[in-house]
Amino acid sequence: MAERFPVPTMPAPPVAVVGLGQLGGSLAAALVAAGRPVRGWDVDPAARDAAAARGVQISQELSGVVVLAVPLPVMATALDGLAVAGDATVTDLGSVKRPVLDTVGTALGGRFVGGHPMCGTERSGHTAADPGLFAGARWALCLEPGTDLSRWLRVAEIALAVGAEVVPVTAAEHDDAVAAISHVPHLLAAALAAAAGQAGPLALSLAAGSFRDGTRVIGSDPAFVRAMVEGNAAPTSAALARVQEQLARPWAELVGDGHAVVTREQGRRSVRVPLERAALLSLGRSGGAVTRRLAAFVEGYVPDPA
Amino acid sequence: MAERFPVPTMPAPPVAVVGLGQLGGSLAAALVAAGRPVRGWDVDPAARDAAAARGVQISQELSGVVVLAVPLPVMATALDGLAVAGDATVTDLGSVKRPVLDTVGTALGGRFVGGHPMCGTERSGHTAADPGLFAGARWALCLEPGTDLSRWLRVAEIALAVGAEVVPVTAAEHDDAVAAISHVPHLLAAALAAAAGQAGPLALSLAAGSFRDGTRVIGSDPAFVRAMVEGNAAPTSAALARVQEQLARPWAELVGDGHAVVTREQGRRSVRVPLERAALLSLGRSGGAVTRRLAAFVEGYVPDPA
Questions:
Q1: Looking at beta carbons, which residues of chain A come within 8 Å of B286?
Q2: Domain containing residue A207
Q3: Within chain A, which residues score under 50 in pLDDT?
């Protein structure tokens, strides 16, 4: 007979979102859509109005779980001038985690839980908000040695509530991983586009699917891209060097190996993982994620060869 | 008062497509949809059956404009065993033009017109055929010093009939251009995927939009990709070196320049170009294309700052 665990019945904490652009506006809208009260704030009145129209209560008094959904360069000052409850848990959605941990994390101590939902697009601003943005996305959530596990679970619950799957990571692991799968792709896209621009109008006029796909991401706001790659410079340089090693290999081998990675069939095997830092991080390192929280466990999956 | 030119009234020549996979099957289906009789042949009975079901007359006796829509490694032998009319114009859809000119072009002389529609996807085979594949696509068509202009116009007419825009190029110009905008993107995608595969399961589990877009094209059949990059090795090496020079620049500059290329607004200005090799090639070099054939001119456009 299968063991049964009760679903936790503690009330979900209130959520407040600071920054109501694409990611913050989408999160606030998704939580409203899930029937949860959400407060929000943005320095831009147009972003506040758009969020208010979606049912977000505009306020500068924030409590519960406070989500920093602002660009990296202003992350450290995002709470300036706002009234934040002394026991609030603070998380962020920034694309680099070590620098945020060094600034916001140092200031807030155990109350800070760094996070990064893997679902932005090349669009930005409140007009790009979409309550379905997080459905099925992975959401990296940092479990540092000093992270308060109960606060980590509160933030994880919000990610799960909007349809994401939570990947437990350290900030260092996160930054190395996203250098390989996000920050280097932005630089490759920029280099591909810039080189084609130099090749001239005939080349650009013949550009089709492979060029469009290979360069799409550099359509993103260049200020955001610069903050991201420069904020994660050492892992990005290392990951770029690994791509350049690949480019030096014989093309036949390179093409075969690259094809194998993108076409690999990957199954999933359900697992239960105790609410314990090492076990959760091990789940993340294996390529797994948390899909549900139970009383003393989380449910999730690990990859399984199909 | 605007000059008026009569639309040519000569009958469109019959078309025969050899190879009924994604590109050939799409072209045959598009021509059938345009009300034109089309013959076709493929060594694979399943591809023949699929084309026959779309209204293509399956035959080994080919005349008019014969389109070689087979993979590069078998291009030179694609007509072996088939009965081709002695005055047929032969064109191809291969992604590299100098090697095809050196083999098929040398064998057929002035009867050969090299071509390359810029619209493949990462899919292949007859199940990926789509009669709408060419709508709005650029179709590079080679005008070498020895090309018979009337045969070139016959092939151009077929490209225009399925909704493509014809870019006059030399084989050498084509191969340099596609190295920059297609062959290098395939290698970058392979290197990005292979490096992320080495980075491990956490990195792959966090992969999202920028990784998917940046690697999509290496989902293509690796044998096709190898034939393409190895068949255009010198221009591809040179274009890859130019991308690597870009990657060595300060990231802030690189990101800004790449962003500017992909977000550049580009208008179009209508032009008429006389049916003359130098003028047509000049149109292609400027980033323009032919959109319609008149009696003594073609109509087309050149890029215009928006």
A1: 201-202
A2: 174-248
A3: 1-9
